[in-house]
């Protein structure tokens, strides 16, 4: 489960967002090309289980 996921996308630009208390992975890119991320804020409590930040995945 992720807060925001992009799959098979090209020229993705994510700018100026905040993700707070995502259930597991905050931001995931699967099989994407040309991804740019700027001014991103990720926040989760220290005791949250398995809350990863950004997952870039190639398939």
From TrEMBL:
Subcellular localization: Secreted, Cell wall
GO biological process: carbohydrate metabolic process; cell wall organization
Pfam families: Glyco_hydro_28
Keyword Repeat in record: no
InterPro entries attached to this UniProt entry: Glyco_hydro_28 (IPR000743), Pectin_lyas_fold (IPR012334), Pectin_lyase_fold/virulence (IPR011050)
Keywords: Cell wall, Cell wall biogenesis/degradation, Glycosidase, Hydrolase, Secreted
SUPFAM superfamilies: Pectin lyase-like
Lipid biosynthesis found in the keyword field: no
GO molecular function: polygalacturonase activity
Principal location: secreted
Similarity comment: family membership: Belongs to the glycosyl hydrolase 28 family.
Name listed for the protein in its UniProt record: Polygalacturonase
Native source organism of the sequence: Aegilops tauschii subsp. strangulata
């Amino acid at each position: 489960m992720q807060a925001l996921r992009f799959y098979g996308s090209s020229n993705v630009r994510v700018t100026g967002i905040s993700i707070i208390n995502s259930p597991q992975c905050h931001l995931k890119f699967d099989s994407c090309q040309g991804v740019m991320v700027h001014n991103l804020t990720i926040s989760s409590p220290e005791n949250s289980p398995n809350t990863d930040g950004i997952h870039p995945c190639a398939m």
